[in-house]
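Quick illustration, no need to memorize.
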Amino acid sequence: EVQKLNQQLEEKNGEIQQMINQPPYEKEREILRLQKTLAEKEKAQATSDVLCRSLTDETHQLQRKLASTAEMCQRLAKCLEEKQRKEKANSNDQIPTERSHQLLDNEPSLQALICNLQDENRMLKQKVAHV
């Protein structure tokens, strides 16, 4: 193991001697190449940081929208349940009143609204999962 390390040390010393013995213009060319590589990596890192921040902001925004949509769905579901209970109670009376007609007329629009919100909720969950 010591011999292996000594051999690696000799190889590194040889590389250093080779760099020292290079003409100055080759050294400068190597320095410029390394500086260019460093600048490219710094630029890539900055771009990555900006994208990461952007995705984080978008994730938070989608999570807030998802929470508000879920809350709206819960409220609409409660309203629908109440209206269905009232409709049941009114249907037991055998005499349809104007209020029960309104409930019957509004029920399809509530169902459509709930379906739309559920679809939006599902899409937002997919976006959050994707992000």
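The chain has a mean pLDDT of 84.
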